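Try this one yourself first.
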């Protein structure tokens, strides 16, 4: 069973619909016992880093996620991926979960061409920089869907894939141990995204 963490942040049901389309047993839950019973966990997220971190803390699930990440595959999506890192700098500095080394910063400050739009929104090709079982059904250069203003940096060793936006190589996918993350939305990335979710379900 794949558990989707419900902590009041994110469009949980479009993600659940994608997993159900793949024929996967899925549950949206904020209960620690159900997360512990799951075979895999997905941490979604939409919004601001600090607010999401506070909501996750309020649920009492931070320690559960840290424990379960030692035992089973965990996938963070969009803001959920950003929360995996050490810290984020959105409206101040906020601690992340510390599961992946690195930080989350405003994309606009690193863009040389200030006319490029932020948020970075729409389809972009993903260059695979490290082979991984997450890409079992995914080809290098396939297009995926992004909606974000902040991105992960100082995380080269953990980076699996990146998408070029101006002069910035946007961190698109990461891994450390049992923990994976995608800045893009697999559930909004058509067939390529579905294939990536299928691979995650087989990890």
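Now uncover the answer:
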């Amino acid at each position: 069973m794949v558990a989707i963490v419900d902590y009041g942040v994110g469009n949980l049901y479009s993600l659940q619909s994608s997993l159900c389309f793949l024929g996967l047993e899925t549950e949206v839950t904020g209960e620690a016992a159900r997360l512990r019973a799951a075979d895999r966990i997905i941490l979604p997220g939409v919004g601001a880093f600090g607010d999401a971190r506070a909501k996750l803390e309020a649920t009492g699930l931070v320690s559960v996620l840290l424990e379960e990440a030692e035992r089973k595959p965990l996938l963070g999506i969009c803001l959920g991926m950003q929360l995996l890192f050490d810290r984020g700098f959105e409206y101040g500095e906020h601690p992340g979960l510390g599961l992946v080394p690195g930080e989350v910063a405003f994309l606009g400050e690193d863009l040389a061409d200030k006319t490029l739009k932020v948020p970075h929104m729409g389809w972009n090709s993903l260059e695979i920089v490290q082979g991984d079982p997450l890409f079992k059904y995914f080809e290098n250069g396939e297009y995926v869907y992004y909606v974000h203003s902040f991105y992960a940096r100082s995380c080269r060793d953990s980076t699996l894939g990146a998408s070029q936006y101006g002069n910035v190589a946007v961190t698109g996918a990461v891994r450390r141990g049992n923990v994976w993350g995608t800045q893009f939305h697999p559930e909004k990335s058509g067939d390529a995204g579905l294939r990536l979710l299928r691979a995650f379900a087989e990890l």
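Discussion: The two ends are 12 Å apart (CA to CA). The mean pLDDT is 96.
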